[in-house]
Design goal:
393 residues; alpha/beta; Aspartate Aminotransferase, domain 2; 2 domains; seven-stranded mixed sheet; 9 helices; disordered N terminus
């Protein structure tokens, strides 16, 4: 039950979050991080030298162990962050059969547009939902290849689980999981391609992506050649054989060894907080902090209203005050941006504005590197900023 009045005037808080970084990418560094974490980086060395390949291989092996990636699945480091990884999968794998692409936020919509306009797939079905919702998953045809985001980074809505994915599927399940991996349970046996980047849940640096392939995905790579030009950085097979070096640390292009060292540091931290279970618990605790606050708020609500499909990482909020809702779209955007600017000026929160294509509101990262205490310190600042802006209309 809402117990606060939207006209309530809040006192300006006196305590700011210890770490006000709530960006949804690049995300907050792990607690206690400093540049000292990079002192062992193999800078000035070739990534093809033994030391470089060893460190790249360490990222792969530690990631596989923490995530519980099954035997027979392979994991590689690829260029261009999660975008590069998911595009690599689409350009390399699609075209053998029809494709269903699901979208309910900006990035899924981008993959759908690429399937239509860049790959020019002829047998393509697009299933869309508004921000905060997800499509009707029962309409997916698993005789076809299926592309979807596990967690909508710009909408705060995620699939509830993997029950809707057919175990006996004929097509491939291709999943952009960049803001889900390391924070949510992934049913690996239901997934054939999974991609993410270092800059999300573990707070790594940008520019590098990771891709998991199931045995079924590898079989597709080795038996199917798409009728399209394939850029070198997208090539995972040659002459009908998997380029296996990608999946043991022999990257396609030159990686930053500083970023590699930072990824290793993040993985070691993850191990120290209880591995995957510990990371998930931290993220879910962060969501609960905001859920408890929203329950009592008369002015803020979740963009993803259904709890079962609400993200614990990219937590998206909307302003539900009736007077605000009556304003023009331009005025709504102006006031929301004012709140974001106020909190940044006060050092209470950085980069919490909604994504540019998303509905007006706020997006607060709740991944594992964020401390719940910092979120608890942030929320009074949101109330204060809202009350100050609310006075003006």
């Amino acid at each position: 039950m809402k117990v606060r009045s939207s006209l309530h005037l809040y006192m300006k808080p006196t305590t700011t979050p210890h770490n006000p970084c709530f960006s949804s990418g690049p995300c907050a560094k792990r607690p206690g991080w400093s540049l000292d974490a990079l002192k062992g980086a193999a800078v000035g060395r070739s990534h093809r030298a033994k030391i470089g390949k060893t460190k790249l291989g360490e990222v792969i092996e530690r990631s596989k162990k923490i995530l519980g990636i099954p035997e027979g699945y392979i994991l590689g480091i690829v260029p261009a962050s999660d975008t590069g990884a998911i595009e690599m999968a689409m350009w390399s794998l699609l075209g053998e059969r029809g494709v269903d692409v699901l979208s309910w936020e900006s990035f899924g919509s981008g993959w759908a547009a690429d399937c239509k306009n860049q790959l020019k797939l002829k047998d393509l079905r697009s299933m869309k939902a508004d921000y905060g919702q997800i499509p009707d998953l029962s309409q997916v045809d698993w005789k076809r290849d299926v592309i979807f985001t596990w967690n909508g980074t710009t909408s705060g809505a995620r699939v509830p689980n993997g029950d809707w994915i057919a175990a006996d599927r004929e097509g491939l399940a291709i999943c952009d999981a960049t803001s889900a991996v390391f924070a949510m349970e992934m049913p690996w046996d239901k997934l054939d391609v999974v991609t993410w980047s270092w800059q999300k849940v573990l707070g790594g640096e940008g520019g590098h992506g990771m891709i998991v392939l199931s045995p079924r995905a590898v079989q597709r790579l080795e038996s199917f050649t798409a009728d399209r030009a394939l850029p070198k950085i997208f090539q995972m097979a040659k002459g009908g054989k998997l380029i296996s070096g990608i999946f043991v640390g022999e990257t396609i292009n030159t990686p930053s060894m500083l970023c590699v060292e930072d990824a290793i540091d993040g993985l070691k931290w993850a191990e120290g907080v209880g591995g995957l279970a510990g990371l998930i618990a931290r993220s879910e605790a962060n969501l609960k902090v905001i859920e408890d606050w929203v329950t009592k708020s008369a002015w803020a609500g979740f963009l993803a209203e259904e709890k079962a499909t609400r993200s614990s990482t990219s937590i998206c909020l909307k302003i539900v005050d009736p007077t605000y809702a009556a304003l023009s779209a331009d005025d709504q955007a102006k006031h929301a941006k004012t709140i974001v600017s106020m909190l940044e000026k006060e050092g209470a929160a950085y980069d919490i504005g909604a994504y540019r294509d998303a509905p007006v509101g706020f997006r607060i990262w709740g991944g594992a590197t964020v401390e719940s205490a910092d979120l608890q310190a942030l929320l009074p600042w949101l109330d204060w900023a809202w009350s100050e802006v609310r006075k003006t209309f």
